[in-house]
Request: fold
Amino acid sequence: MDQPVWWSSGPFWRKTAVWVTGASLVALVFLSIDSLRQISVGSPRVPAYTVINQRIDYVFDEVRRVQQPRIGAQQPLFGQILNAQQAEALVRHGKLTVQAKNCMDCHTLLGNGAYFAPDLTKAWLDPYWETAAVREQQMVEFLLDPTDKLHNALGRRMPNLHLTQDEAKAVTGFLKWMSSIDTNGFPYNFTSIKQES
Amino acid sequence: MAALGAISLANLNGGQKLAIKYFTLAGALFAAQLLFGLLAGLQYLMPEFLFGVLDFSINRMVHINALVVWMLCGFLGSIYWLLEEEAQHPVVGLKLGHLVFWAFASAVALVVVVYLFVQTGPGETATIWLITEGREYIEAPRWADIAIVGSVLAFFYNVAGTFTKGRFTGIGGVLVIDLIALFGLYLAGMFYTTNISLDQFWWWWVIHLWVEATWEVLVGAILAYALIKTLGVRRQIVETWLYIEVALMFGSGILGLGHHYFWIGTPDYWLSIGGFFSALEPIPLVAMIVHAVYDSGTHKMKNSNHPAFAWMIAGAFGNFLGAGVWGFMHTLPQINLFTHGTQWTASHGHLAFFGAFATVIIAFFYLAVQKLRGDVWMSAELPDGGLKWKWSFALLNFGMLGMTVALLISGYVQSQLERAIGGSSWSAYFEAQAHPWFQQGIWWRQIFGVLMLIGFVFLVWDLLTAGKRETRAIQSLELA
Reply:
C-alpha cells in the first residue's frame, strides 16, 4: 500500500497535536499568572473586603463605554466600620453561607449558576430594595424568611433556607462586596437603586 | 460457551466485565438525570410543586450531578471496554478495579441521599466537607471529591499500566495523556476561597477544560475505536484523524477557556482572546463530521452494529450542532454580554452534553449488548425491523432537539427583555420570565422532556432484549 503524503500522515499530525497543545498550554499559563494577579483581593478589579465600608455605585464609563463600579465615600454596613480582618471574616462567612445553601442552583453569581432566580452580581444595587436607607434591613429580613415577601406575578418564591441572623448579615456583606467587582460591564444596562448623590 | 443470543459474561474479557458495571450505573444515573430534570422543569410551570420539600435547587443539583457522573461512568466503562483489546493485555489490576467500582458506587449513593434528605447546611466549612460545596456541577462535598480522586487514581493505574504492559496504540497514547489532564484538572475545583472571581477562575478550569477539551478528546479516542469495530476502518486512518482532532480541539479549546472569563472580574483582554479561540472551537467538530461521513461512505454504510453506528453518527452531528453551532451562536462577547446566564446557556448545554457525549456512550452500550450475547448479528434486517432502537433513537434525539429549540426561544426572550431592554434588574428578570413567549418555550421544553423519557424507556427495553432470539453471528467486515 502507498505511503500517505507527509501532510496526511499520522506522525506529522501527532507532532502537530503535541506542539499545538504545548503552545496553547504555555500561553494559558502566562495569561493565568497575569489574570490571577489582576483578580487578587485588593486589586483595582477586585477590591479589598473593606470596600463594604464604602458606598458602591455602578456607573457608565465614557472611555470603556460600559458600566463599571465606582467606590465612593464612607457608607458603613449595618452602621459599623469594619477593619480588614472583620470585613474579611464577614464576607467569608457570607460566601460560605452562599455555598452551604446552594444559592447557585437557583441564582447566577457573576452570571454563572442556574436560571430559576435573578442574577446576584449586582443584587446590592437592585432597585428591589427600594432605597439605600432601608436596603440592609430589607435584605436581612428577606433572607431570614423570603417565603412571604413580594416576589413576582408567577408565584415563584424563594424557599426559607433557615439562615441565622448572622448568616443573613454575612450574605448581605458578601453581596455588597461582590457588587464592587469590575465585571467588564456585565450586567449591561443595569438600573441601580437610587442613592442620594 | 453460551448459546448465541443468550446473555453470558463469559463472552467478555475481564475489562469488559467491569465495564458492564459502569454502564449499568451510568444507565441508572441517566434515569435519575431525566427524572430530576423533569421535576425541576415542572417547577418552572408550577412553582408550588414540591416547594419547601424538594426545591428547585435540589432537583437541579441532582439533575446536573447525575449528568456529570453518568457521563464519567460511561467514559470509564467505555475505556475498560476497549482496554484489553487495544492493549492486547489483561487489565493489570482487575480486582482493584472491581473494588474501586463498588466504593465509587457507594460514594455516589451516599452523596445523593445527603443531597435529597439533608439538602443544605449552616454557613460553615463543615457543610462544604460533608453536605455540599454549593458550586455548580461540582457540588459534591469535599469527602466525595477525595474519594473520586482515589478512585480515579486506581482507574488511571489500570489504564496506563495495561497499555504499558501490553502495547501503546495511538488511541491508547491519546487516552492516557488525556486522562492525566482530565483528572488533574479536577483538583483545581477542590478548594475554598472567599474571592468569588478566583473561585470562578479555577472552577472554569474544571468545567471548561473538561467538557470543551479533555472530554471532547476522550470521546474522539473512544469513537476511533468504535469506528474500527463497527465499520472496519483501518487503524492508520482513524488514528491520523484522531491526531488532527486533538490538535484542533486543544488548539482552540484550551484558550477558548477565555470565553468564560469575559464577566467574572478577569481582565478585558480575555474578550478578544476568548472570542477568537472559541470561534475556532467548531472546527474540530466539523472535522469529526467529515471523518465520520467519509468513513461511512467509504464502507457504503456496511457496519456490524446498526444501533451503535446510528448513535455514533448522531454523536458526530450532535457534537457539531450542540457544542459547535449552539456554542458559537453566543460565544462572542458582544452577544454573550446579553445571553450570559440566560436560557441560551441552558439550550446550548443540553444539546452539547447530549450530542457530544451521551450519544457516544449509548453507542458503547450497544457494542456491549452485542458482545454480551455472544457477538450476535445487529446489522440490517433485525427482528421487528429494529423498531425499539429506532423509536428510542428518534424520541431521544427529537426530544433533545425540541428541548434545545424551546429553551433557545425562551433564551431569546430573556436576553431581549431582561437584559437589552429591562436593564437586568430583578423586576426585569421576572417580567421576562412571565412573558407569554418565554412561558411558551418552557412549556415546550417540558413536553419534549417527556418525549425523551419515553425514548429512554424504549432504550432500556431494547438494551435488555436486543439480540435475544438472534441466531445469526455478527456481520463480518473487511478492513479498508
